[in-house]
User: Fold this.
Amino acid sequence: MSDDTPDSLIPYDEIVQEALRAVVGRVLGEIEASGGDLPGNHHFYITFKTGAPGVMIPAHLRERFPDEMTIVLQNKFWDLKVDEDGFSVGLTFSQVPAKLEIPFAAITAFVDPAVDFGLQFQATVADMAPERHEDAENDAPEQGDGSAVVASEDGSNVVTVDFGRKK
Assistant:
């Protein structure tokens, strides 16, 4: 596309983002329906905006991750509940249990490193660019540098959607 491309009167980017977030909802819903059992080696890294509307996390986590946070759903999670707007889950951070409620609209990345699958989402607010943050402590990632969340250039199944909206 060129700079001369007219602005669309159809919000394609919003429609695609909503559809891709529905993929996350369906996957988590299937895990919930199975009683919280992840099949095979599947596990998920879910990155979300901690300040997004509807996000409910303990104050100590919001202080530690004021912009963005990545959680791991692998071995130690419980009470996964999924509805059409988001999900809630119990996790431990430094051996302290916590309940998190995360709307799908707050999610910026979803990765299943077991099968090289990942989705990255545009932030819904322009000034919500991610800041560097500490890694989550609820599960040890397979790679301590967090590289599993970064899109690889090796042909893996990472989908990035960016329609280059004009400002």
Strands lie at 44-49, 68-73, 77-82, 86-93, 96-103, 107-112, 117-120, 157-160.
